[in-house]
Amino acid sequence: MSRARATAALSAGLVLAALVGGCAEPPAPPRPSSGAATMRTDTRPDATQLLATTVEKINRSGGVHNTVRGSLGIVGELNGEGVVQYQGGAAEFSLSGHTEPEGQRPQPVELSFVDGVGYLKTPLMRPEPGKPWLRIASDGTDFAAKLFSPALAQVLAAIDPRATFAGIESATKIETSAPEVIDGRQTTRYDLRILTARAAELSTDPQQRERYRSAAESGQREIGYQLWLDESGLPVRFAATQDVAQAGQMSLTSSYRDWGTHIDIQPPPADRVGVFRDLPMPQAQPR
Questions:
Q1: I need a surface site. Which of 45, 91, 171, 212 has the fewest CB within 10 A?
Q2: Which residues contact 214 (CB under 8 A, 6 or more apart)?
Q3: Positive/negative CA dihedral, 264, 12, 223, 69
Q4: Which SS3 state, helix, strand or coil, does residue 95 take?
């Protein structure tokens, strides 16, 4: 593989990887302690009941309109609008918008996840002439699957708060909570902290378990998220921040409106979906 082509693939991969709404905050600073105080009980409220109730309400509500905005580190800014369907175990979604890489013009991007398969459309990654969509299967062995399926799983977790906390509700604490008005709507903001060592013990998902185990072993005791709930208990916002060595700081916020919307998400036409015959080269144009 040439250096130019490897660099191109990595740059394009960052675009999708940076969509990760499941990005986590930098580790919380250590609490001052000494001697026996290090063993004191964590008195912060448990988030189990809060998250269980929120998940139940999401499941009953079904569809919602979603906006994702924020910084993608060195990749630039992301602005996207879409819809999400929460019926069933995994969410399905469709998102369109643009990314603005540093020093380049804004680049359009479309991403969807239907029936367990992801699809990506961006001028940075053109699989075949006349076939602008790229299929990303989690169990695929092709170039696209190997490069993008881990990132796609995190995108899904970012858009679906259920996936972030599923199975580890009792490993999550409420750091603070406070009323906050968003676009004229009364909400309550919850600063949530996942205890990584405990989450690694509880998680039944191998990838999730390994992620928390690695975080705990590296000294990252907690991973933070912010969740805003309206007066009915449904999400209004979901936010996270992470420092990524290869990409800089990523900070994304998902906003939700019109819960209960009927949504029918369809995959792209089969004849518009291509595969890579060779490593892709980016098509982004400079300013």
A1: 45
A2: none
A3: negative
A4: strand
